[in-house]
Amino acid sequence: FQVKSENKKTIWNTEEVPEGSEFDDTWDPREKPEYEILFKQHVGTEDVFFGMTGKDPSTACCEDIVIKIKLPETKYSDITLDIQDKVLDLRTPKKKLLLHLPYPVNSKEGRARFLSDEETLEVTLRVSRKFDFINSS
Questions:
Q1: How many CB atoms lie within 10 A of CB 35?
Q2: pTM of the model
Q3: Which of 20, 50, 82, 103 could connect to 89 by a Cys-Cys bridge, CB 3.0–4.6 Å?
Q4: What is the rounded CA–CA span in Å between residue 50 and residue 114?
């Protein structure tokens, strides 16, 4: 199959370039911090005991993504965080993380907190999903 381009000199369409590629700088010498991605879902007794809502432990039923990023020797004021629908971009003077998220998120509803005693940034993002037979709430 061929994609028709309006400009004959282009070698790809803008739809083929993943979101967040403009932030990826392979020449940046800052190291990538350790991070962990966790999934969180809101369950009640109707889910746990009766299985009434049809939720299961898979990531398809999770409402939030929690990303824990280790930032040793970093102050809260040194952190720059940019969240888009599919990309998390974090920069500090010593560390840089460009993370393509596993699911699209609502970038306006996220929250972040810096746990200074653990030297960890915890970012919680609401997953943006279309309603289907699993995600009906």
A1: 17
A2: 0.73
A3: 82
A4: 37
